[in-house]
Amino acid sequence: MLLPSPLTSLLAVLQLTSAVQGTSGNVEHHHAQLLDTYDFVIAGGGTAGLTVADRLTEAFPDKSVLVVEYGEVEYAPGVFDPPKTAWGATGGLASSWVLSSTPSPEFNNNTATVVVGKVVGGSSAVNGMFFDRGSRHDYDTWNRLQDDDRSAKPGKGAIDWSWNGIYPFFKKSATFTPPPAAVVSMYNYTWDMSAFGNSTPIYASLPPFLWGDHYISRNAWKEMGIWMSQECADGNKEGLCWTPISEHPTTARRSYSGLAHYADVIAKRPNYHLLVKHQVARVVYSKGNTKSGPPVVEVRPLDGSQLFNVSAKNEVILSTGVFGTPAVLQRSGIGPAAFLESAKIPLLTVPQDSKPLPFYPLPSEMLNETFTAQATAAFNETPAQGPYTLAMSSSSIWVPLPNISVTYSTIIDDIRRLANASDPSSLHLPPAYGLEPTLVAGYRAQLLALADLLANPRSPSLESAFATGTHASAVLLHPLSRGTARLNLTHPFELPILDYRSASNPIDMALHVAHTRYLRRMVHTASMQALGAVEVDPGEARQTDAELAAFVRQTAIQSYMHPCCTAAMLPRARGGVVGADLKVHGAAGLRVVDMSVLPMLPGAHLSWTAYAVGEKVSFHVCFVKMALTCGQAADIIIRERSKGKGE
């Protein structure tokens, strides 16, 4: 995680693919087609950026909004759509960047890979479509980390990032549709409609299909004593959960920001302009005075033509993503002072069966041409049916550390001792952190918050999502290690250089080993043993902590495609980049709205959080700053306030 420090100076330095049916309106290709000045300029047309653009243009029809997007408008297929035949394989999605980190010494110099959407709709157009929210304890921790950093007194503009503060915007941001009664009866799906608000056409649904061996894992988890949760989207995220997929409930096509917050609304919004195939190079303040905002936006056409400027009357909003936003800030002279001045960031495979499984169908059936043809035909029915409606997964377990290891308190004690260590060099941070005391202070606060989260018997430490019953993956939800995302000085307009520094904090490896020990217990449940299951990896021969750690170092996938926190929402004294209002510290008229602002990773896949953050900040801008309401957002807040919740 990169937490830029105070401002310093750096160098002074659209063709549209009409692939989304029904898209029309103010899609611009060239500088000459733009207005002279816009009320709001949004850098990045991704998950959160388009959410903000939609809400602002809806609330203020007399105010102009320009979105500058690197990619194009494209059709975004689902993660498992025809003609694919290998369930779980990657590729064939909308345009994206594929980034690799520098080697991680603690993982045998392996690199981490992360995929970022390069398309209108951003990463919501290329993600795995697993659509969940974090635990209430995650968001309460965000609020705690803000300390006394508030943009105004409560009730007069303060932004509450606790669970109660963000929950209404989770509800507003998507529409959940229950499956048909026959599907519910077949799979025993459960949900709680009170957790959903259903006012926005970002669709969440449970698939009408599960692989035949899905219940192997479900039964094993039950036998291990894991709680069967009716609903995990209500903030109480613990146990075995059914998790929606971000797909349309009838067509089973991917539901993403590029549709709901752009294609579905652009034709009726003359004040909503989208400039594609252009990149925000940097933001520029007049004479370097950051109190003179909003800044001018310097835009770089991808066709190689001359850079040009766009002005904003009200605000510039950066929403270029976890890696794009720090690059824009650093190119603008906002970032780690020492770096700018020199200008010179486990997966476990457990059971496998020793005899043929008495289940049908399995993912291997996709290799059968007849089966695949039938699956394709089912997908094109109305409503869509069959395996292509499944995406990657609709089930997972979320387990707190106290339920994983009887010696969990040792790990918690180690974290707290580390947080209070007198020598900053013992914190296992990137070397550059030592040059900025505020970054060290912020990390100490995060460690204490992480200790409390991991000690909480209702706050998950482990995720294991599954769609078949023959393997389990161990996902570490709250890592302690911190890396960097630094501007590529050789190619400054490309995405930054990533140094994940995975497991550079040794406590992370202790957590990985604890998770591995826990998951391997499923092999010995009655359900697994009845099928003759044996542990393939790491294998029964590996029993000691050192042996399991060696297995993790060799086999772990260092990125689970949910990066965050590169422009963190923390007080400036804690190394933060933005305040609780998401405005960049000390930079007038400049706000960041994407997953770079998270102060800590929640225990969740991030797309739903991105929508909620976009909705929440849009409401704040409309309802508080502009003294107007943003559509149905006001009604939601009034209802929540009447219940003693929300802001």
- Name the average pLDDT: 86
Which range best describes the helical content: under 10%, 10-25%, 25-40%, 40-55%, 55-70% or over 70%?
25-40%
Low-confidence stretches: 1-24, 149-157, 344-354, 636-647
Largest sheet features: 8 strands, mixed
Shape: globular
> Got a strand count?
20
Give the structural class.
alpha/beta
CATH homology superfamily name of the domain at 178-255 and 346-555? Glucose Oxidase, domain 3
In short:
The chain has about 650 residues and is of the alpha/beta class.
Give structural notes.
This is Glucose-methanol-choline oxidoreductase N-terminal domain-containing protein. The chain is an alpha/beta fold and 647 residues long. It has a domain of 288 residues: 2-Layer Sandwich (Glucose Oxidase, domain 3), CATH 3.30.560.10. 27% of the residues lie in helices and 14% in strands. Strand 11 and strand 12 form a beta hairpin. Helix 1 packs parallel to helix 15 and helix 10 packs antiparallel against helix 12. The N terminus and C terminus are likely disordered.
Layout of helices and strands:
Blueprint: E1 26-28, E2 37-43, H1 47-59, E3 65-68, E4 96-100, E5 113-117, H2 136-145, H3 163-173, E6 175-177, H4 181-187, E7 203-205, H5 214-223, E8 239-242, H6 257-263, E9 272-275, E10 278-284, E11 296-301, E12 308-318, H7 321-331, H8 337-342, E13 351-353, H9 369-379, E14 395-400, H10 408-419, H11 437-455, E15 460-466, E16 475-476, E17 484-486, E18 497-499, H12 506-519, H13 526-529, E19 533-535, H14 545-555, E20 590-592, H15 607-625, H16 633-642
Parallel strand pairs: 1-9, 2-3, 2-12, 3-9, 6-7, 12-20
Antiparallel strand pairs: 4-5, 8-14, 10-11, 11-12, 13-19, 14-15, 15-16, 17-18
